[in-house]
Amino acid sequence: MKAICIGGAGRICREAALDLVEYSDFEKITIADINADAAREVARWLDDPRVDHAAIDVNDGDRASALIGEYDLALDGTTIALNGRTAACIARAGAHGLNLNGFGDEIEQDEHFRSLDRVFVPGFGMTPGTTNMMVKHAADSMDSVETVRVSHGAFRPIAFSEAITATTVYEVAPELPGRVVYENGWFVRVPPFARPREIELPHPYGTHTQYIIPHSETHTLADFLKDKGVRLIEVRGTWPPANMQLLRSLYDWGFMRNDPVCVDGVTVGVMDVISAYLTQCPEGKVTDLYGCALHVEVIGNRRGHKIRHVLTHTHPASDGSEPGWEKLRAYTRCVGIPLAIGADLIARGRVDARGVVSPEKAFRPMDVFNALQKRRIFIHEDIMPFSIAPIAQYARTA
Known about the structure:
Blueprint: E1 2-6, H1 13-23, E2 28-33, H2 36-46, E3 51-55, H3 61-68, E4 73-76, H4 83-93, E5 96-99, H5 110-115, E6 119-121, H6 130-140, E7 144-155, H7 162-171, E8 180-183, E9 186-189, E10 197-201, E11 206-212, H8 217-224, E12 232-238, H9 241-252, E13 260-263, E14 266-269, H10 270-280, E15 291-302, E16 305-314, H11 329-347, E17 355-356, H12 359-362, H13 365-374, E18 378-385, E19 392-396
Parallel strand pairs: 1-2, 1-4, 2-3, 4-5, 5-6, 6-17, 7-12
Antiparallel strand pairs: 7-15, 8-9, 8-12, 10-11, 11-12, 13-14, 15-16, 16-18, 18-19
Helix pairs in contact: 1-11, 3-4, 6-13, 7-10, 11-13
């Protein structure tokens, strides 16, 4: 099979391409990006005879679809704003596909993918993606589910790329309709920095105050767990403390509204200026601690007993002790590797679903966990009676 990595020159998607090179049986892997020079550099960095590069612009749907049509599967590493267009191009091309973000526009292509006997999985990185698998794993062992809390810490610079800056600004946008919790059968919209909760992340990340964020897990898990009687689903996240302090100040002072301001006769959105500054200044490209930390809590009932199932994950340190995981790569590899694992599972026929389907309906948790373990990314579990000390603590192994 042949795979094309769209937005493949990006910091995260190139890690997915590297994983395909190291672990998959794809006979051809193309790094496709609107920046042809950057795609060429990534292909050179991967240094594998199966890898080549191409220029692509998903805004030119006809040409993009024609190129993607030469491949069996497409990995979409583009920004949130482009996900709907990219999914449309992949559908027109007749390829399987998946992306990192999963924010909803992809569902418009469901019938098209079904008609072609193809699958597209939106949102398969660390979160959404691996978190969905963690919840599914816990929920599958329960007779009913009451509460799901998904939390994560993304320890990376606030603006190491334009796409990451856009994601950060998107998640704190004041009027964003998709920032919701699922509560007693309803999706309840909440403002930025709503429902603070202290979450203890695995070492070395520690405990952080986390707030509700607009992630697709809220919607896909509500659908997946509807027959289990789920009553509450909350998805939270945090970034490094300095990032959170900055974002809170920008929100409190109204900058996140992106009101237009006039400077020397030129009118521009104030947040657009700040975003551009962050992507260009050194402070926007460094942080003290790098990596990703997941924390999932599922409360439900099993054989008449109420239990609390907590799952976390760990990965190689970012301090240089593990080659290839230094600093920012401890974050980008964590997010990019699940995308590659999902692509490989589709290619190997491990996904039976067709159309646009959520991670919960596409993948088996143990397929994902075992693949992560081979990359030295581990899923850990604590199972305990609700509100009582742990009765089982262990790492999930193959």
